[in-house]
Inverse folding.
């Protein structure tokens, strides 16, 4: 998933996982994030990956500038 492809729901999921892994109900957006390896785990406990952290950091940098 590219920065331009991030939806508000995807951004919200990634932001919520930055500080702690937690359960997330299955959704098409979650499936896309899993397929792109931006998050990993099971719906009972999802973790953000380094790629996910890098993408959300780039998103924050781009929105602040």
């Amino acid at each position: 998933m590219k920065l331009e492809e991030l939806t508000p729901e995807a951004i919200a999921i990634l932001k919520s996982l930055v500080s702690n892994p937690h359960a997330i109900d299955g959704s098409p957006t979650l499936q896309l994030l899993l397929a792109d390896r931006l998050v990993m785990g099971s719906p009972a406990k999802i973790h953000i990956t380094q790629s996910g952290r890098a993408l959300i950091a780039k998103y924050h940098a781009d929105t602040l500038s």
